[in-house]
Amino acid sequence: DLQICQHRAPTCCTRKMEESYQAAVRRERTQSIQALNFELKYMIVGHITAFQEAFESLLRFAENRTSSLFETAYRPVAKEAAEPVKELFTDISLYLLGAETTVESAALRFFDSLFPLVYSRLINPGITDLSEDYTECLRLTRQDINPFGRYSKNLVAELSKSLWASRMFSQALSLGIEVINTTEHAALSKECGRALVKMQYCPHCQGLTLIRPCVGYCLNVMRGCLASVSELDAQWREYISVLEYLANEMAASHELEVALTGIRNSVNEAILHAQLNGPQLSATVDKVCGQPKRQEGNLSSASVVPAKEVTEAQRFVVAHATLNSKRREFISYMKRSRTFYASIAERLCDGDLVMRDSSTCWNGEDVV
């Protein structure tokens, strides 16, 4: 009553044993593909971790740099500016991790929050009435009078270009893991299961437990079983090309590291621009939002102080070089895996599964 291992000679197999063999080949095939995938998946997961760690470190560095700008150059607003700065970098982090937000909305929200502080603490330090209505009027007015000049738009442009490539790179790495996980659990067809049993276990029914499949026979069976997986070849090659393109974009002049650490300078230039145009801004704001209450006495606006550079540049340069080096190594490895899905049958038939350097092997029907 055998369904797969039918043979004219006497056999020691039963129908139940055939069923056990079918379960065994399915389990073994999944384990074999997992073993092949392990190194590739390990490399991608490792780079995701390294990328996220380096990115978080970079974000903290850039946030500290920006906060120190207010503490050293614009002390009157330092305390109240802490929250908008924190929100800006949180929004950037969420954007890079794939959240449905934009760099432009994050930057505009930051400058909307910053303008009331700059206007009431630096441009007109005598203002005492900073009610919710007046603050909201200042926020809305900022969008019309553009107190920060071109610097706010420049910041958005620089960040958008560099963060876009990093966001896409991060999402592409996650997609790679998803593809690999899916191929590991690709269902084997009934015909494939029977072909694998015939190739690996039917010799056992004749007592030939040491004989192994012929190489050509193994390749034919595996190619048939993995036809759907090997169809990924063209898309996988394209995927590697996209990773390479994104890595080059990140390493180009608009790279993530430079853009993030440049936020401090952009914010500084924006505030300086607002201070230098204080009288015109005040005249416009008074017309739109009305005259606020002021303290008596002669309070001059805060003097323009050039921001000092923080002395963490050396540490940043090292971290920056490490991230670039890791990225190059990773892309180099991924380029070597271009033929991963095209050669999966050959790799599964390599090693202990088939008989090599021997005069005899199993061809599916007999020993040849």
TrEMBL record:
The UniProt record lists the keyword Membrane: yes
InterPro entries from the UniProt entry: Glypican, Glypican_CS
Membrane topology, as annotated: Lipid-anchor; GPI-anchor
GO biological process, one term: regulation of protein localization to membrane
Keyword Cell membrane in record: yes
Entry keywords, A to Z: Cell membrane, Glycoprotein, GPI-anchor, Heparan sulfate, Lipoprotein, Membrane, Proteoglycan, Signal
GO cellular component: cell surface; extracellular region; plasma membrane; side of membrane
Primary localization class, coarse: membrane
Superkingdom of the source species: Eukaryota
A Pfam family it matches: Glypican
Compartment list: Cell membrane
Cited function: Cell surface proteoglycan.
Sequence similarity: Belongs to the glypican family.
Record-given protein name: Glypican-5
